[in-house]
Structures are given as C-alpha cells and as structure tokens.
TrEMBL record:
<keyword id="KW-0408">Iron</keyword>
<dbReference type="Pfam" id="PF13620">
    <property type="entry name" value="CarboxypepD_reg"/>
</dbReference>
<feature type="domain" description="4Fe-4S ferredoxin-type">
    <location>
        <begin position="58"/>
        <end position="153"/>
    </location>
</feature>
<dbReference type="Pfam" id="PF13247">
    <property type="entry name" value="Fer4_11"/>
</dbReference>
<keyword id="KW-0411">Iron-sulfur</keyword>
<keyword id="KW-0004">4Fe-4S</keyword>
<keyword id="KW-0479">Metal-binding</keyword>
<dbReference type="InterPro" id="IPR013783">
    <property type="entry name" value="Ig-like_fold"/>
</dbReference>
<dbReference type="InterPro" id="IPR050954">
    <property type="entry name" value="ET_IronSulfur_Cluster-Binding"/>
</dbReference>
<dbReference type="InterPro" id="IPR008969">
    <property type="entry name" value="CarboxyPept-like_regulatory"/>
</dbReference>
<protein>
    <submittedName>
        <fullName>4Fe-4S dicluster domain-containing protein</fullName>
    </submittedName>
</protein>
<dbReference type="InterPro" id="IPR017896">
    <property type="entry name" value="4Fe4S_Fe-S-bd"/>
</dbReference>
Length: 269
C-alpha cells in the first residue's frame, strides 16, 4: 500500500502540485479511470493557504489536501452499484459511468476532496494518477513535479513515526500523511517605553495553566522572543528584568497563535 507523505518543512508554497494536477486532468479524459476534470471549481490536489498570527509577526502555512484513498472510505460506503471501488494497489476510483447521478458520493467525503460535476452529473476526485501508474509511472503527477521534495510517494510501512494521518479525514485511516506541520507559537517584543529602546537579553518564561514553567528564552538583538512548537492550550508569559516591574501576560494558544506585539516595561520607581 502506498502513501503520499507531505513534509511541511520543505514546502515553499509554489502550487506546483495543484497546477500539475490540473494540467494532467483538465482537457484529458482518462476513462474508465476518470472523466475530464473541469477547469474551474475542482481541485483534486488543493493547496490550502492559511495566514497565521498578525502584524508584525505573520507566518503563511501551505498544506495540500487531496483524496486520502482511505482504508475506511466514506465514498465507497455511500456508493451503490459498485460505483466506487478499490484497486489492488489501494487506489480508490470513482467509475464515471456507474457513479452518474450519485451526489451522495461527493457529500460523504469529510475532507471535501470529492467534487460534483453538474455538467456531467458525476462525482469526481483524485485518482492517484492511476492511469499513469498503469502506464509505468512510479509516482502521481503531484509528487513528480514537487521541486522541494515536500511530497513523496512511499510504502505505508515506511511512514515516519512522527507523521500523522491527513487531519481532514484522520478517522478514516487515509493514505495521505503530514509531518513537520508547525504547532502553536507565541511572539512578543520587550520595549523600554521611556527611551524607546528594545530590551535585549532579558529572560522570558512560559508557564502553563498550572503555573509550571514549560520554556524560557532570552530576547534577541531586536528585543524579540518566540516560543515555538507549543501544545494548543492557555499559557502565561512572564519576565523579571532588573530595573523594571515584573510582567505576566495571558497568551491563550488554544485556538490560534499568539502575537503579543510590543510589551512596554515600566521602570521601577
């Protein structure tokens, strides 16, 4: 069984995988594997772009979403008359003839990776480029064009232990895995308001909800600190700097990354 592995640390957001998928399937009818993909409205390999944080600290995260060819495929369960089937190599195919009129197939996918072609009255999705695999290709087009190696096509048993199933369909055991997706982060800058200068080399601590220290870091030459790879929970950022009043700021990273921005220290009277 093959798996597509996405390494977020290698992705530069070029959208090459998404464009290659369109190039392979738009204007081409690969029946009986797949009918032609529409030029608009469908992305069998869709790069999702998420902007994290806010000015002055903004990060952009790119993540490809595609059919997971799931072990417990919801689309197969929703189909009738054998309209969705699994090949011996594990790829799940929607028969463009038998699936005609079966909107339930598209509606069943929790990842939104199955689309409905109203013009042809059929559900459609990534085929894993099964037509190319049958023609001797070793990898799907999306993997073949990835210039950075962020996408690889590997055996299921070779999936790294730190990788996780594609979150959008994780409960269905998808054969698409992600690794090195950045966890939560907290950012801030210590500033002396009285002289409009940043505070360099100050120790900043991060405490969890129980008040236990989970990390500490010194502000850099720009007065900045960044706590990375954090669990999704509430924290408190503290700092005790000689000559200034102590600070303790709430930083709830449960739902999103935290940008505290400029933190003005007050000199001890």
């Amino acid at each position: 069984m093959k798996t597509i592995l996405f390494d977020a640390s290698l992705c530069n957001g070029c959208y090459g995988c998404q464009m290659a998928c369109k190039d392979e399937h738009c204007g081409n009818d690969w029946s009986p594997i797949a009918a032609e993909q529409p030029t608009t409205g469908q992305f069998w390999c869709k790069v999702e772009q998420v902007t994290r944080g806010k000015l002055p600290e903004v990060k952009v995260q790119y993540t490809p979403v595609m059919c997971g060819h799931c072990e417990n495929a919801a689309c197969m369960e929703a189909a009738t008359d054998g309209a969705v089937y699994r090949r011996e190599d594990g790829l799940i195919i929607i028969d463009p003839v038998k699936a005609k009129g079966q909107k339930a197939i598209a509606e069943a996918c929790p990842a939104g990776a199955v689309y409905y072609n109203d013009a042809l009255d059929i559900p459609q999705k990534c085929t894993g480029c099964a037509h190319l695999i049958d023609d001797g290709w070793e990898v799907p087009r999306c993997v073949d064009v990835c210039a950075t190696g962020a996408l690889t096509y590997i055996d299921e048993e070779d999936v790294p232990a730190e990788a996780v199933p594609m979150p959008a369909a994780s409960e269905l055991h998808p054969h698409v895995h992600y690794m090195n997706v950045p966890k939560r982060w907290i950012y801030g800058v210590l500033v002396d308001r009285s002289i409009n200068e940043v505070v360099i080399g100050a120790t900043v601590k991060l405490l969890d909800a129980e008040g236990t220290e989970v990390a500490r870091i010194a502000t850099d030459e720009f007065g900045e600190f960044r706590f990375k790879e954090l669990d999704e929970q509430a924290y408190t950022v503290t700092a005790s700097v000689d000559g200034y009043e102590d600070i303790a700021l709430s930083a709830d990273a449960t739902d999103k990354d935290v940008v505290l921005g400029d933190i003005f220290l007050s000199a001890v009277a």
